[in-house]
């Protein structure tokens, strides 16, 4: 990546498999990339547009302008015909010598489910966007990855540890070909690591997709960006740029929250904020799980950044994994959470249903999907022999798709980036709420 002009401080973070498990000729690493502001943009042109779900029938539109502009979104169901408008707020932040542009957040709605809306930001007629709202009922498709999004008919996509490399671009291209409803990202978005212009580059990189479908994210270690004495407030850029619907779920922090989509309750947890039994996050999670109505949301999915189960030699013994699991695993188990997605480890691994280190038919399936395309490369060594609870593992970049078909059945598939048409791992799942043996 070319060095960005005006960047005077660079900080390097040392973030902490034994043989490769799958015989596979892995492609080489790809160069870092940066996305500069288009020359035709003015100082008030909306850029880095992305959307997130707010409650059952609203969307938050977020964007940045280099100078002051109206925090207004005009929208409607026909292209160019904006029959409604909403006004929000704007702010900016400083990080050392860097000053952000104006960051706008506007909530629009109520919106009809499974409907395409057209919109423009800051009354700028030169940039027009469209979004599709998720369905109100199953099926739904999620894309999951770190960082990668996928699609099914009414499904969500997942990915983690995206970064800004040639592999990131490949992942995004694959996502663009899918028809997902919601993207879930378990942390490590821009890999800015204190270099704030990389947040702007990342926003431009993902805008073509993030402006069309809700991207629901949580934080990873690369979002902390805390420097003792010099900049003691963590998550400054993340909280300012990627505002999630935490208030609507009763949370007091943008670092953990939950939301419902179709018949799925999604819980986004914070691996890098307090999680012990005396913490606000722990108490919030207890309350959130206690309020779930499995008649309305028969599926529960949770996202963390640092995996609680991991047979890769990378990221072993970290408190964000071990202590968080020690404190919170029992809460998810008693609530019969179906799936826990994690990132952090730059590889793919799927576990069987597990609890307290043992196979358990009433425990969640844990899936590490930290293979979106980060600059640090793959974690290629695993511990041997393989743990009895680990079902499939491979050090490759890729993406995953979760299609929740109905109240009892869902299918998870994982694809390598370089042979995306081939399903490398797949499993059909039954919801724990439909298993009589798991009734509490």
Automatic annotation (TrEMBL):
Task: List the Pfam families hit by this protein, alphabetically.
Answer: Metallophos, Metallophos_C, Pur_ac_phosph_N
* Co-factor requirement: Fe cation; Zn(2+)
What Gene3D superfamilies does the annotation carry? 3.60.21.10, Purple acid phosphatase-like, N-terminal
CDD domains tied to this protein: MPP_PAPs (cd00839)
Residue ranges constituting the Calcineurin-like phosphoesterase domain according to the UniProt record? 169-348
The source's superkingdom equals Eukaryota
Q: What class of enzyme is it?
A: hydrolase
Q: What is its EC number?
A: 3.1.3.2
Q: Which family does it belong to?
A: Belongs to the metallophosphoesterase superfamily. Purple acid phosphatase family.
Task: Indicate what this protein is called per its UniProt record.
Answer: Purple acid phosphatase
Species of origin reads Gossypium australe
